Amino acid sequence: MIDTHCHLDAAEFDIDRDQIVALAFARGVSRIIIPSVAVDNFPQVKNKALNYPSCHAAYGIHPLYVTQASDKDITTLADWLRNEAPVAVGEIGLDFYIKDTDPERQIFFFTEQLKLARQFDLPVILHVRRAIDEVLKYLRRYTVRGGIAHAFNGSKQQADEFIKLGFKLGFGGAMTYSGSTRIRALAASIPLENIVLETDAPDIPPEWLNRGRNSPAELPRIAQVLADLRGVSLEEVTRVTSEAARQALPGLSG
After folding, report:
1. Total number of domains in the chain
2. What is the pLDDT tens value at each position of the chain, 254 positions in all?
3. The domain spanning residue 93 has which CATH number?
4. Which one of 21, 96, 231, 250 counts the least CB within 10 Å of its CB?
5. What pairing do the DSSP bridges indicate for beta strands 147-150 and 2-3?
6. What's the domain range around 247?
């Protein structure tokens, strides 16, 4: 199975990163996608993708990091996309949940990065929090080749709109909580071929970690939750979501 969103470069993994990666692969994880959040961490993401077989880099500027970014970071990102052959532009998007952010600056960086995704014909990995309709608006204006709506938490209608635009929807730890009724209902009802698995490790820990550090080694158990919600086998979930990930991120097939 494929972890389509894991911040393997995060400091939380510095004490045991080798062991965590080995455990994830021993449990059946076959690929890990490492998205960036700012130009400063591009080298670390590249290093982790090179050091661990079957790990892949994505480069982008996260919406909560745009206040620390300069306009020239767009040019830096273009250079990395041109020279490093990432599987996606990401993690990019909009986040209007945090009240003291700058929406206009977020929109500027989001649209400029969508333009780069078009220029380099790359999919995008989207961060969408309290801004789904706004993200959809700009995706319609700056069409890209699709990608993944990470940690999807919208309505069925919004899910359908992402799917129409060529996106797969990411489900992970939030789905494992019995109280997450809307997310669980979506995970059970959306066509499985439009779902990809993710951990967002070290963030969004599943229920059984009791808010502890998440890791890619938790992906098989997260996949089992999805299988249980849908009443299908773990093998079917693994097969179909892995194919969905390869469709969303064609660079995985190379």
Report:
1. 1
2. 999 999 999 999 999 999 999 999 999 999 999 999 999 999 999 999 999 989 999 999 999 999 999 999 999 999 999 999 999 999 999 999 987 779 999 999 999 999 999 999 999 999 999 899 999 999 999 999 999 999 999 999 999 999 999 999 999 999 999 999 999 999 999 999 999 999 999 999 999 999 999 999 999 999 999 999 999 999 999 999 999 999 999 999 85
3. 3.20.20.140
4. 231
5. unpaired
6. 2-253
